[in-house]
Description:
heterodimer, A: seven-stranded mixed β-sheet, 50% strand, globular, B: mainly beta, six-stranded mixed β-sheet, five-stranded antiparallel β-sheet
Amino acid sequence: NAGVTQTPKFRILKIGQSMTLQCTQDMNHNYMYWYRQDPGMGLKLIYYSVGAGITDKGEVPNGYNVSRSTTEDFPLRLELAAPSQTSVYFCASSYQGGHGYTFGSGTRLTVV
Amino acid sequence: QQQVKQSPQSLIVQKGGISIINCAYENTAFDYFPWYQQFPGKGPALLIAIRPDVSEKKEGRFTISFNKSAKQFSLHIMDSQPGDSATYFCAASSGGGADGLTFGKGTHLIIQP
């Protein structure tokens, strides 16, 4: 039982490049979330999804896009990477909204 | 605008002591208050959670105290151990939390042996 799997674990991007952060869960959770974690700033919600085909913006969505074509996968797309997007990105899923998140192990992204 | 304020930012406690982390919130619609524990290089993990209809919840050495009128809640770690050294986040959500959790900024806890 893998839980929430995020790939890659580390990535260095050049300014203006694009990439997709992958997130897959095998718990049949409907709710999935993307957060970014910056030192001393806690976790801020980027996007979330309450089920396949449904996505919505969180607190800090600018510069990101998501899709949810299946229950299992919730990829996060960065277009035109900027230094401000240097962060650790966490994907989470839950069976009941904000209750009982299972987090992935994170993707550490550096934009140079 | 930060809706959940957490303090202190860092905390050093001697082994066997009590660690206390505090959070305050502004949104009276919040109805679920979890605490997450994060070790370096790992994702946060749910530690314990409380709803506002109770004033205290205890699980092993971990206790949440909740004061609805003051809009404050706190995490107490009794008999703190070096293995408890981690970053702790309080959080809050409303209406089932489908639109996500609002997190505090975190407390870096060090338990000295």
